[in-house]
Design brief:
alpha+beta; 3 strands
Length: 66
């Protein structure tokens, strides 16, 4: 490795989103603007899992209304 090569950053350092009590935020700034003080970074895997659950929930809700 040369001095200009950089190892790939850890997923936790490059959070895809932030999770607070009111839901997901794209940035910590968005969360704080919404008065969320306790937010935590969400990894890409966690974000995919949360999104999958949300989609399944919406599909199931649509079936109940049909």
């Amino acid at each position: 490795m040369s001095q200009h090569d950089h190892p790939p950053p850890a997923a936790k350092l490059n959070a895809a989103a932030w999770l607070g009590r009111a839901g997901l935020y794209r940035t910590r700034f968005d969360a704080v603007r919404n008065f969320e003080q306790s937010v935590r970074p969400v990894t890409a895997d966690e974000l995919f899992e949360l999104a999958s659950k949300q989609v399944l929930s919406q599909i199931n809700e649509g079936r109940h209304h049909a």
